[in-house]
Amino acid sequence: MEQRDHIVEELKAWAPDARWPGKDMPFHVPAGYFEALPEKILEQTALFSLVGTDHPYEVPAGYFERLPEQLLARTRNLSAEEPSSSGKIVSLFFRKIMPYAAAALLGGVLVTGAFIFTDQRRGGSQASTELSNITASHTVLSPENDLYQDISRKMQSLSDDEINRYLEENTSTETLEWQPEELN
C-alpha cells in the first residue's frame, strides 16, 4: 500500500485539480443481489412469459447410453450385406480416358507448333532469304578484324575541321524514307 500511496501523492502533485479516487471502493453490491438475480431476470423477460419455461423436446431415457451400440450394429449390418442391385452404377470411363486425351491434346499442340516453326525456318518468306544473303556477304566489324583496325587508324588521324566539313557536306535536314523493292 505504501507504493500506491506514493504514486497517488505524486499524481496529485502533477494535477492538483483532478478528482482522484480515495482508498475506499467506489462501487458496492447490495446484500443478496446475486441470490435474487435469476428471479428478477425471469420477471423482466417477456419472452419467457409467452413461451414458458418447459422444454418442448425431450430425449428418451437412456438414449445416449444405447447410441454407441446402435451405431456399431448398423455399420456391421451394412458392411456384411451384399451391395444392392438397385443402386446407380457410375461408369469411370471418362476418368480413365482423361489423361490420354490431355496427352493427345498437348502432343497436337507441340507438333503443330514445330511444323509452323520449321516451315518458317526453311525459307518460308523471300524477305528472310534476302536478309540472310545480305548479312552473309557483308563483313562484321570487330576489334580483331583488319578492316576495323584500319578504319580506327584513319579516324584517329582526321582533324576536327575535316570531320565538321564532312558533316556539313553529307548531313541533310530531309527525312529519308526507305522504299523496299517489290519482293513478290
Q: Give the amount of beta strand, in percent.
A: under 5%
N-C termini distance: 106 Å
Query: What is the tally of helical segments?
Result: 8
Largest sheet: none
Give the fraction of residues assigned to helices.
55-70%
Q: Helix/strand/pairing class, anyone?
A: mainly alpha
Instruction: Determine Rg (CA atoms, Å).
Output: 50 Å
Order of helices and strands: HHHHHHHH
Average pLDDT figure? 76
User: Total number of β-strand segments?
Assistant: 0
pLDDT under 50 segments (min length 5)? Answer: none
A few lines on this structure:
The chain has 184 residues and is mainly α. The chain has helices at residues 2-14, 33-44, 46-51, 63-80, 93-121, 126-137, 146-157, 160-170.
Plain-language structure description:
The chain has a domain at about 140-165. It contains 8 helices and no strands. The protein has helices at about 1-15, 35-45, 45-50, 65-80, 95-120, 125-135, 145-155, 160-170. The longest helix is centred in the middle third of the chain and has 29 residues, at about 95-120. The N and C termini lie far apart (about 105 Å). About 0% of the residues are buried.
